[in-house]
Each structure stands twice: as structure tokens, then as C-alpha cells.
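Budget justification aside, the reviewers requested a transparent look at the raw inputs and outputs of the sequence design task funded under Objective 1. We therefore reproduce one unedited record. The lines immediately below are the C-alpha cells for a 481-residue chain.
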């Protein structure tokens, strides 16, 4: 009964021969949890199934009886928990032993000129099913599921007819129950294989590229086949952001990294610095990393105003040349900001260009000077209380005069002023980061017991998964026999 593992694929879902920027490890603990939750879901769904009519005939030595069993529904199901295992470099095997059903429906018989009908009760005992599937990836980078093998057997069937001339036909049940067993047994594996095929169609229809917002898209095709071991399954994804406008490739590639499995967790996710840097490059190539700043935009808690008088403390000649004028700053990233991860912390390098101008009384913009600012920040991230939290600190700021329409001036004082302003802004930012943001909830599940570890080149997130019971009925609608 393979459908019990569909839960696992829905949670994961989403080949190129490139280093994956995002890695996912599903452990055996996660597989077994998905199997357990899937068993309960199947138990609920089985009771809603209506079977197709079963028709046939049997020779009872005194003639041939033609019969039809219709409106067959499950009244009770004894569903033992299946066994599900990873198969080395192949896929999954799932098996169930001792499955039994209590059924009810209507019967119609024809024996010569005799036509009769009524109701019946049926019990099917000791159904055993074993199925093996191969997991792979297609050319579009989507996970594929293929049936490799299926075996099914039915132990026994008992039937009790009611109504009509059932007392005549009841003694002959022993003659045609073997035929019923054969019909039921022959339908199990084709239905299991249809279920696997439907799951594969579902996976092939899934998007591997998403528009995150109006600026960025996110590409997450698989970079190769799943790497399957007896204890886990590893998936590698491209994990690259692009500008929707330019779709320009970043001038760097994803580097290889090894996501270690942390014992005791169902799911591990590795997010490389390449993924964050591709997002940064996407914004940069789309022309989004720029801002226009005037005095009205400076927060009141910053003790500085953006005008030529206030700037006179840093550039003495400025208020003499342009007294009492408001100023504007055109800020642009010179390059895409770049992230790098080290054990326990991350580094962000930012390089910007600031073009300053003054606004004369008639609205004319007068160019003043251009500054290059290079800054480095160190940050930490953690997960606590179900929230992503963090902190940032300023490592260094250097300011260089690029060009000037007001003559040369020393930048030391201005550099110190910028440092002070950044410290104030970081204080406000860290207060927000300390409060944290709630971890995103998946459609059918939520992450619990989650920890985050910053490693060289990537961030590792380790978590258990809790399936949301209210959503369980919406995984997939499937018939089984």
C-alpha cells in the first residue's frame, strides 16, 4: 500500500549536473513518521471508497450461476501499520501484511431462468501487499517515481447472503469464493501502480521555478537523482534566484558543500551562501539596490540633518559655497552585496556609491561630490521559540572621495559620522532581530524542535516535522482496489 508514503513526497516537493545550492536530507525517522501519519490518513479514506461492480460466473456442477456484486463499500478495516524502507541507490519498498476488510453491498444472481437479488456481507482476510518504487529525476529537474515491482495475495474470503433466495445460493459460496479472491487479488497491484503513476503525474506537474515577488524568481529543480542510503535520502536543488527583468546569470557559481546529518532529526536543509548571493545579484541586476535620500527621510532619533550647514562640520567649504541649502543623496550599490558564512557567524560586504547634491531655491540640483563607502558587517542567526532571530554588528567602514565639485576635503570626520549613524541604526535593527520572526508554515505541516547552525559556506537547519491534522484529508484522493 504505497500511498502511505505520499505524505513524505508532498512535504518535500518541489537534472543539471551542477553543485546544488540547497540540500535536503530526509532521514529514516522522517520516513517512519510520514508512514505513521499516512497510515491514519489511509484508514480514514478507505471507509469512503465505493468499489466497482464485480461480475462473473461459476459452475456449481448443476449449472452455471451468473452473479454481480454492486455498491460494495467498506464497513470496517483492520489496517496494520505498513513497513517502509529506503533501498540503497534505488528508492523505497513498502509492504503491509494482514490487512482485512469487512464489506457490504448488493447481490444479483441468475441461474437459468431464476433471477434474484438481495444484500450481502463479505470479509476479506490477510491481504499482503509488497511494492517497490524507483526514485529519480527527469530532464526538467523534477522528482520521478516509477513502480518496479508489486506482489499481492489474499488469504481468504467469507460471504453471507441476505434476502431473496439467498438460502439457496449460500451453500454454494465455497464454489465461487475462490473466483472472488482471484478477482480482488488481480486488482490490487494495478491499483497500486495507478496510484504510483498518479503520484508521478502530480510530481511532474509541480513548478520548479517560482516568482517570489515582482523582482525575483526562484529556481529549484533537482540537480541530479536522489542519493539514497538505508538511513536517509538526500536531494540537491539548484536554489538560484534570478531577476525577472534581466534573468542575468550571476558572475559566480555554487560551491560544493557537505551537509552533515544531525542525529535525531527528521529533516535537514542546507542553504548555501550562493542562494543568498544570487538573490542579492538579482536585485542588483534589476536596478533595485538604489535609493534617493533627502532630509525628510532621516529618522528623528538620528542627531543630524541633511543640509549644507550640518555638513559644514565635515566639509568646511560646503556651507561657505552653498549656505543654507537642503541636500539630496543618490545612493547606489556599486556591486551586489555579498554574503559569506563561517562557523557560528556570517559576513556581509556592501559597496555603495553616494552622489550628493544641493537644492537651490529655484529647485535646481547642484552636484557636490561623490563618495565610495565600503562596509563589512558580521551577523548571527539562530532559531529559538519557533522564531528566526539574529543580530548584526559593524566590523568596518571606509570612505573614499571619488570626485568633488567643491574641491578636495578630508573624509576622516565624515567617516566617523557615518560609523556613528550606522551604530544607531544597527541598534534599532537588532532590537527587531532579537524579537524574531515566526518560521514559515508549510501547507500541510509545520517545523518543530528546529535548530540552526552556521557553517563554512552554508547554513544548516535541522528539524522535526509535525503534520497538521486538519489538512490531512487534502493530500491526495486515491482509490485502492
Amino acid at each position: 500500500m504505497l500511498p502511505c508514503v505520499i505524505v513524505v513526497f508532498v512535504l518535500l516537493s518541489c537534472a543539471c549536473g551542477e553543485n546544488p545550492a540547497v540540500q535536503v536530507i530526509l532521514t529514516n525517522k522522517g520516513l517512519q513518521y510520514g508512514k505513521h501519519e499516512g497510515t491514519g490518513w489511509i484508514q480514514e479514506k478507505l471507509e469512503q471508497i465505493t468499489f466497482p461492480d464485480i461480475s462473473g460466473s461459476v459452475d456449481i456442477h448443476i449449472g452455471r450461476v451468473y452473479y454481480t456484486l454492486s455498491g460494495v463499500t467498506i464497513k470496517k478495516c483492520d489496517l496494520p501499520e505498513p513497513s517502509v524502507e529506503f533501498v540503497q541507490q534505488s528508492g523505497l519498498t513498502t509492504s503491509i501484511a494482514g490487512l482485512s476488510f469487512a464489506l457490504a453491498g448488493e447481490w444479483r444472481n441468475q441461474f437459468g431462468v431464476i433471477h434474484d437479488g438481495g444484500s450481502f456481507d463479505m470479509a476479506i482476510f490477510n491481504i499482503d501487499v509488497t511494492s517497490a518504487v524507483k526514485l529519480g529525476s527527469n530532464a526538467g529537474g523534477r522528482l520521478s517515481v516509477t513502480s518496479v515491482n508489486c506482489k499481492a495475495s489474499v488469504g481468504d474470503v467469507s460471504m453471507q447472503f441476505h434476502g431473496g433466495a439467498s438460502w439457496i445460493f449460500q451453500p454454494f459460496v465455497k464454489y465461487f469464493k475462490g473466483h472472488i479472491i482471484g478477482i480482488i487479488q488481480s486488482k490490487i497491484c494495478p491499483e497500486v501502480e495507478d496510484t504510483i503513476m498518479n503520484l508521478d503525474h502530480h510530481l511532474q506537474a509541480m513548478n520548479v521555478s517560482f516568482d517570489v515577488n515582482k523582482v525575483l524568481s526562484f529556481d529549484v529543480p533537482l540537480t541530479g537523482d536522489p542519493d539514497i542510503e538505508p538511513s536517509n535520502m538526500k536531494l540537491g536543488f539548484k536554489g538560484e534566484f534570478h531577476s525577472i527583468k534581466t534573468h542575468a546569470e550571476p558572475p559566480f557559481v555554487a560551491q560544493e558543500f557537505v551537509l552533515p546529518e544531525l542525529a535525531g532529526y527528521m529533516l535537514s536543509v542546507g542553504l548555501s551562501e550562493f542562494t543568498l548571493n544570487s538573490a542579492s545579484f538579482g536585485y542588483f541586476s534589476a536596478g533595485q539596490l538604489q535609493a534617493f535620500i533627502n532630509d525628510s527621510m532621516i529618522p528623528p532619533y538620528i542627531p543630524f540633518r541633511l543640509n549644507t550647514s550640518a555638513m559644514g562640520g565635515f566639509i568646511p567649504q560646503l556651507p561657505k559655497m552653498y549656505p543654507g541649502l537642503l541636500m539630496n543623496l543618490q545612493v547606489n550599490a556599486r556591486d551586489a552585496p555579498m554574503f559569506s558564512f563561517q562557523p557560528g557567524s556570517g559576513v556581509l560586504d556592501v559597496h555603495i556609491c553616494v552622489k550628493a547634491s544641493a537644492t537651490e531655491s529655484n529647485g535646481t540640483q547642484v552636484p557636490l561630490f561623490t563618495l565610495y563607502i565600503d562596509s563589512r558587517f558580521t551577523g548571527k542567526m539562530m532559531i529559538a521559540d519557533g522564531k528566526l532571530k539574529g543580530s548584526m554588528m559593524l566590523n568596518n567602514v571606509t570612505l573614499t572621495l571619488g570626485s568633488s565639485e567643491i574641491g578636495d576635503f578630508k573624509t576622516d570626520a565624515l567617516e566617523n559620522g557615518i560609523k556613528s549613524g550606522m551604530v544607531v541604526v544597527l541598534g534599532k535593527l537588532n532590537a527587531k532581530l532579537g524579537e524574531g520572526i515566526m518560521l514559515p508554515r508549510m501547507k500541510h505541516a509545520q517545523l518543530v524542535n528546529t535548530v540552526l547552525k552556521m557553517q563554512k559556506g552554508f547554513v544548516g537547519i535541522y528539524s522535526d516535522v509535525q503534520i497538521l491534522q486538519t489538512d490531512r484529508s487534502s493530500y491526495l484522493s486515491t482509490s485502492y482496489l
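Confidence is low (pLDDT under 50) at residues 1-17, 471-481. The domain at 2-15+28-205 is CATH 3.15.10.10 (Bactericidal permeability-increasing protein; domain 1). Computational costs for records of this kind are itemized in the attached budget.
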